[in-house]
Amino acid sequence: MIRRVVAYADGGAVAASRDFYTGVLGFEAAMEDPALALVAPDTPSAQVLVLPPGTEDPPPRFGVDLGEPGAVDSAHAEAVRRGLRVVYPLTTEPWGVRRFFVEDPGGTVVNVLAHVR
């Protein structure tokens, strides 16, 4: 089940981006490290992640939260079965996210993730 799709913004000016998304658009900062996560107060599935320069290589264009780590494992297995290019390996990150990056057929890098409970 897809829980949310997270848009990723360039983080060339993280503090200014935080001010823009909170002050102009009304998002709330939900996380500051390792990236700035902004959440819409009335719609928590509406999020923007501001990645500081050099955080990810290659940088994903957006993230898809599948809700459960097992779903991430299944998506990874299917991507590999289909011969898609996995550009960041299946990993459980120290900040509590299981994820991998895969390149879609058009070349867009997608972060497929779920929070570990």
From TrEMBL:
GO terms of molecular function? dioxygenase activity
Question: What domain of life?
Answer: Bacteria
Q: Which InterPro entries match?
A: Glyas_Bleomycin-R_OHBP_Dase, Glyas_Fos-R_dOase_dom, VOC_core
All copies of domain VOC, residue ranges:
1-115
Q: Which UniProt keywords apply?
A: Dioxygenase, Oxidoreductase
Stated name of the protein: Glyoxalase/Bleomycin resistance protein/Dioxygenase superfamily protein
Write down the species: Pseudonocardia ammonioxydans
